[in-house]
Amino acid sequence: MIILKLLYESLLFAINALVVNKVRTVLSLLGITIGIFSIISVFTVFDSMEHSIKSEINSLGSNVLFIQKWPWAMGGDYPWWKYYQRPEPKVSEMAEIKKRSITVQQTAFMFSVSRNVYFQNNSMESIPIVAVSQEYSEVMPFDLQQGRYFTVIESHSGNNIALIGSEVAEKLFQGLDPVGRKIKVFGRKLDIIGVIKKQGEDIFGNSKDNWVMIPVNYARNVLDVRNIGSTIIVVAKPHITNEQMKDELTGIMRSIRKLPPRADDSFALNETDIISKGFDELFAVISMVGWIIGGFSLLVGGFGIANIMFVSVRERTNQIGIQKSLGAKNYFILVQFLFEAVFLSVMGGIVGLIIVYLLTFVVSSLFSFDLILTYGNVMLGLLVSAFIGLLSGFVPSWSAARLDPVEAMRQNS
């Protein structure tokens, strides 16, 4: 009961400090508010970005590898001269992997070029023309708004057919049903057999909404594909790790390309984990910057809290002397003032968190990006505020606890 009464009285003193000295208290707490706002807003933005990015990366699948000419890398020096003479993956290599591998469940082949697309008097410039093998829809699933996907016979025969994205359908056909109509690409006509369901852009700015998807065997008949960047996508069987699949694929690809034992690999086995690790490093740096920026504001806020508490001790010196003469222990006075300092600091932190929450609401309403203030960041803000209050209030509280009761009572309150 004594402890609860002590905390209650400290709360009343803290509230009184807020009410009686409004301007001084607000200015002193502004540093805490700005500091918490700086740190938690940075964490909120990048936690939201990290969640979106990892969701996009995970949508590619954690058990997927991409066989390509160029290895993926995040930051640092990129030794491009080691890779530019490598050959591009081929459809025949995909077929060999499918025959030889015991770890791969499914494979698909794809490449893309940019071309203008025409329908009657309407046209769209620099549209991604994506050539895919029949298995692409199994490896990278997507939904159709209408129509159908390529049949096995159509894919293998290289028929002049296409799927188009919702944006292409909207801009070229302007309300007409595109399925069954023809568009012109490469100076040749393609029959539209389906429309890809609208997806919107992912976090990297990519979208199938403006794609024209065609069978890879048709593309090979109308394009020189030798120097076009291509990809073999492989999916592991259940319970097969990426490392196991990489080890096997390395041996198979070296065998297919007849590389000598001491020769370097002429291909790259890329996985989404490379992107995830790269972004983890980036977010770690940005997090450190957030702490540094917010730290300066918190330092100023800490001095503000200490100033309030020194003034509070001076104003209540007489009262402290009376309390100690009546038997109050040093720890009682210490805890009383520490609680007041923590309360004031947490109040500043709460204001900062409220501003962050309003920011998330405004950004999420105005933009197509979900900004979320997590419970973890709220707790972090409150704990940091309390810690700053504890730290900055300790010296004034300690000086109050060590006052001589006789000398303290002689001073005017």
Question: What's the topology here?
Answer:
Layout: H1 2-20, H2 22-59, E1 64-68, H3 91-100, E2 104-119, E3 122-132, H4 136-139, E4 144-147, H5 152-157, E5 161-165, H6 166-173, E6 182-185, E7 188-196, E8 212-215, H7 216-222, E9 230-236, H8 242-256, E10 268-271, H9 272-315, H10 317-325, H11 330-366, H12 375-401, H13 405-410
Parallel strand pairs: 3-8, 5-7
Antiparallel strand pairs: 1-9, 1-10, 2-3, 2-9, 4-7, 5-8, 6-7
Helix pairs in contact: 1-11, 2-9, 2-11, 2-12, 3-8, 9-11, 9-12, 11-12
Task: Provide an overview of this structure.
The structure is a single chain. It is built from 13 helices and 10 strands. The chain has 413 residues and is an alpha+beta fold. It has 2 domains: 2-56 and 277-410, no CATH class; 87-266, no CATH class. A hairpin with a 2-residue loop joins strand 2 (104-119) and strand 3. Strands 1, 2, 3, 4, 5, 6, 7, 8, 9 and 10 form a 10-stranded mixed sheet that branches.
The backbone outline, from C-alpha atoms, is: elongated
What is the subunit organization of this protein? single chain
The main sheet comes to: 10 strands, mixed
Mean pLDDT: 83
Rg result: 33 Å
Q: Which ranges are low-confidence, i.e. pLDDT below 50, for 5 or more consecutive residues?
A: none
Termini gap: 27 Å
Number of strands: 10
Number of domains: 2
Helix-strand category? alpha+beta
Order of helices and strands: HHEHEEHEHEHEEEHEHEHHHHH
Number of helices: 13
Q: Report helical residue fraction.
A: 55-70%
Question: What fraction strand?
Answer: 15-25%
Q: What's a concise summary of this model?
A:
The protein is built from 13 helices and 10 strands. The protein is of the alpha+beta class and 413 residues long. It has 2 domains: 189 residues, no CATH class; 180 residues, no CATH class.
